[in-house]
């Protein structure tokens, strides 16, 4: 197995830091801590400079935590897509062309939906069941 390069090592380290930060920020004790901090901030007689510094620190913290959570969600979403793609690939009768559609344009997604509707209609007719179609005009889009 080859050793990861510096870029991959830094990416992995950043991912771990984001995971830790997001997990700490998402813990119920963190919410209690933020509430206590905010109450203390409003009740203590702080000067204008201290208030400006606290505002700056909280703004930077909010942006950083948002990025950490988004990074964690992005990686979880990618993993979920890979799992779904694997299931589609392994499932007999599934349309392999739907694997990886998360990067497709809206027109490509609509074309896949239409071909899927047509396939469902053919299967329903074969089975003798009533055909249920999804009309794009009735979806309120």
Structural notes for this entry:
With 141 residues, this protein is mainly α. Helices cover 72% and strands 0% of the residues. The protein has 4 helices and no strands. Helix 1 packs across helix 3. It is elongated and about 75 Å long. The termini are far apart. The C terminus is likely disordered.
Search tags:
141 residues; mainly alpha; elongated
How do the helices and strands line up, and which of them pair or pack?
Blueprint lengths: L5 H20 L2 H16 L4 H43 L15 H22 L14
Helix pairs in contact: 1-3
Structural class based on helices, strands and sheet pairing = mainly alpha
Average residue-wise pLDDT:
79
Spans with pLDDT under 50 lasting ≥5 residues?
A: 137-141
The proportion of residues in beta strands is: under 5%
Biggest beta-sheet profile: none
Compute the number of helices.
Answer: 4
| Distance, first to last CA | 50 Å
Q: Assign a percent range to the helix content.
A: over 70%
**How many strands?**
0
Radius of gyration: 25 Å
Shape: elongated
Compressed to H and E, one letter per element, the order equals HHHH
Short description:
With 141 residues, the chain is an all-alpha fold. It has helices spanning 6-25, 28-43, 48-90, 106-127. The termini are far apart.
């Amino acid at each position: 197995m080859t050793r990861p390069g510096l870029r991959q090592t830094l990416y992995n380290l950043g991912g771990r830091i984001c995971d830790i930060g997001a997990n700490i920020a998402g813990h119920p004790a963190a919410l209690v801590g933020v509430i206590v901090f905010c109450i203390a901030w409003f009740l203590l007689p702080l000067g204008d400079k201290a208030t400006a510094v606290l505002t700056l620190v909280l703004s930077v913290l909010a942006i950083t935590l948002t990025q950490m959570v988004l990074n964690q969600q992005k990686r979880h979403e990618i993993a979920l897509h890979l799992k779904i793609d694997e299931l589609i690939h392994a499932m007999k009768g599934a349309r392999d062309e739907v694997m990886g559609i998360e990067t497709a344009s809206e027109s490509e997604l609509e074309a896949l939906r239409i071909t899927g509707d047509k396939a469902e209609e053919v299967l329903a007719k074969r089975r003798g069941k009533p055909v249920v179609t999804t009309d794009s005009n009735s979806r309120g889009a």
